[in-house]
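Entry 14. Structure prediction run on the chain below.
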Amino acid sequence: MTDALLLIDHGSKRQEANNQLFDMVSLLEKFIPNTIVVGAHMELCDPSIKHGVQTCIDRGATHIIACPYMLAPGRHSTSDIPRLVEDAVSKHTDISHTMTPCLGVDDTIAQLILKRARLDHLVTQ
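Output returned:
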C-alpha cells in the first residue's frame, strides 16, 4: 500500500490564504520525503478535493489519508469534506481512504501557542 496525505483547507478568495496550505504541504514533504503529500481546497478555488484525490492516485497512491487543515470541528470538517473525499474516491474501487479529525484542541497546538506567546517557560510538568 502506498499512502498519500491529502491536506484540505476551506479555500479562500485571497491568494495569500491559499498559499499557506501549500507552504504546509512543502513543510510536510520535508518531514516525510518518501510520502505523497498533496493540498486541495474544499471550495472557492482550485485545486479541488476531486483534483487532489486524482493527483494522489496519479502519483501512485493506493490509500489516501484526508486531513482537514482546520482548527474547529465544524460542518466542513465533519460533513462536507468527508462527503467530497468519498465522492472523489468512489470512482476508484482499488483506492482506500481514511479521514483524520481536524486539528482541534491538541497539546501540540497548545505548546505552539505558548511558545509563540513566549509563555512556554511557565509550563509545569
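Strands lie at 3-9, 36-41, 63-68, 96-99.
Filed with the rest of this week's runs.
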